[in-house]
Amino acid sequence: MSTNGPYILVLNCGSSSIKFAIIAPSTGETPLKGLVENLFTASGRLTYEAQGEKIKSTLPAKADHTQALQLIVEILNQFKQLKGQLVAVGHRVVHGGEFFAESALINEAVIQAIHKTSNMAPLHNPANLAGIRSAQLAFPLLPQVAVFDTAFFQTLPKEAFLYALPYSLYEAHGVRKYGFHGTSHYFVSHKAAQMLNKEYEECNLISAHLGNGCSIAAIKHGRAVDTSMGFTPLEGLVMGTRSGDMDPSLPSYMIEQLGYSAADVNSILNKESGLKGISGLSNDCRELEAQAKLGNEQAQLALDMFCYRLVKYIGAYMAVVGTLDALIFTGGIGENSAYVRSKVVSQLYHLGLVIDEALNDEMRFGRSGGIHQPASLPVLAIATKEEWVIAQDSARFAK
Ligand code: ADP
């Protein structure tokens, strides 16, 4: 087992899953990483990989975050040398509200603030808190650090983050755009500045994170000035199963005229829409590309709508950031789908973006690089590393 520590234990507790990894903050080396899936069901499972070896096991029925964390600690106990080099635990926390513009060393006040924000992220923040509590018990001597998905977007100006609703909704209830995927946009935008050989503070960038969830960020002079996700991660782009933007009167129409319950509507917009809803097939971009090639019209329509919405946002954000230094693609689709990148960029020809198809075809499987022609504004595909950002930020608080 490698001994290139110090290391950070990174925990990403989702509503029914936990991703965990041990990462060297200086290099990103990841000697151990794993995934717990299907919490609260009869088919919970845990898989992890330590230096090339993959191990699978099952969880007790209906296991919760605390039980899963106990198993993770047992696994770490088998790797004493690694565990002995841990200097902090970094927690991904989805919603930091307006409390956190940067990562924070966790204490009771921070826990209370995360708790207060839970009503805006009811599936995620309670899971994050469960992870924090368990890790505090398991690693009482290590600093615990919260790294927020929303923090990167606390620089948005009011004109961008407010909805045109009665101002009292913002003042009394915090109704505003928060933005998500902040650690990913942070990582790829800084990486882009390096690749462009330019000071980050001088860069005007647009980054599109396209995974199951999708968001796009406008970054002007190194500050986030707009983003497509909003009060929740539902707003904006077409996503795997989420609708993104639509007429805000549709939910009340579906409830009052079509007889759906509010819970139905919430579930439809979050779980049955997007690529999956339009295609009627799948939320998996790979499958839709394959089906579209075979002539499936619904699969083609889903991809067309996905790309069209993205093109509209890129055009809008080009107006917002001024002279563009680079358009960035990241996330599972952004890093791997030459088809989506080509289809999007080819619709931006008149704005000075021209793809190099040969470079574009080569760019996948964790590679990062330019995919544009010499006369074009830069278009970059960059492999995101959210966990590494969490490790780096957490290391700042290690003694
Ligand atoms: P998450 O948001 O859950 O982290 P990912 O960032 O892993 O998701 O992205 C998942 C998406 O990436 C899926 O739609 C998947 O089809 C897509 N994807 C992964 N590899 C490819 C590929 N080679 N070509 C096209 N799409 C891909």
TrEMBL record:
It comes from the Bacteria. It is an enzyme of class 2 (transferase). Mg(2+). Can also accept Mn(2+). PROSITE patterns: ACETATE_KINASE_1, ACETATE_KINASE_2. Keywords: ATP-binding, Cytoplasm, Kinase, Magnesium, Metal-binding, Nucleotide-binding, Transferase. GO terms for biological process: acetate metabolic process; acetyl-CoA biosynthetic process. The active site is at 149 (proton donor/acceptor). The keyword Transferase applies. Its cofactor is Mg(2+); Mn(2+). HAMAP family: Acetate_kinase. This is Acetate kinase.
